[in-house]
């Protein structure tokens, strides 16, 4: 074989191998980034999806939707008001635990709404929150389940107490997450 023929074979093979290496590296780094960003929500979403790729596609879709929302920090006056309201909900727990848990749910929803999260649909709330608050999302799920039990008068006092703790985790994160205001892309 001549040198020209060998080069005509070797160069395309090297290019294909290099492209495969770059593709695999991008694929692995994108997966790692999603895992880091979504934490436990990554595994939950992938497990609920038809495949890992479908789950990852769902997570990227959540990121795109979240980027289109106008999530904003709270002014200090609002943070103070929410803090006072939370103290009131905690005090209410002593005499009316079921009502207090329900009020905690409403307070968290109100806080989410004021920050710029849509709050009409619980499942959409979870998807929207998962982008920046994946670490506290399980708290929200657990608290919401107990709130549902509480409205049916089926929750124990210990479950209700736990729900308050769970709501508090997300509440604190949303309240203190003045973070960066997000604006919809132009």
Automatic annotation (TrEMBL):
Task: Please give the start and end residues of each transmembrane region.
Answer: 6-28
Q: Which UniProt keywords apply?
A: Membrane, Transmembrane, Transmembrane helix
Query: Would you tell me the protein name for this molecule?
Result: Secreted protein
Q: Which organism is it from?
A: Streptomyces sirii
List the lineage, top down.
Bacteria, Bacillati, Actinomycetota, Actinomycetes, Kitasatosporales
């Amino acid at each position: 074989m001549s040198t020209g023929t060998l080069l005509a074979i070797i160069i395309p093979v090297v290019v294909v191998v290099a492209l495969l290496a770059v593709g695999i590296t991008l694929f692995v780094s994108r997966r790692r980034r999603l895992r880091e960003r979504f934490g436990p929500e990554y595994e939950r979403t992938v497990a609920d999806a038809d495949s890992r790729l479908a789950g990852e596609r769902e997570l990227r879709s959540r990121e795109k939707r979240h980027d289109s929302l106008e999530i904003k920090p709270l002014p200090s006056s609002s943070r103070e008001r929410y803090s006072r309201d939370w103290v009131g909900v905690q005090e209410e727990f002593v005499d009316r635990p079921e009502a207090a848990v329900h009020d905690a749910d409403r307070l968290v929803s109100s806080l989410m709404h004021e920050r710029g999260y849509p709050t009409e649909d619980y499942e959409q709330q979870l998807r929207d929150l998962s982008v920046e608050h994946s670490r506290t999302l399980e708290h929200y799920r657990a608290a919401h389940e107990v709130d549902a039990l509480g409205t049916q008068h089926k929750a124990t006092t210990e479950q209700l107490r736990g729900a308050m703790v769970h709501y508090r985790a997300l509440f604190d994160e949303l309240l203190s997450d003045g973070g960066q205001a997000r604006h919809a892309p132009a």
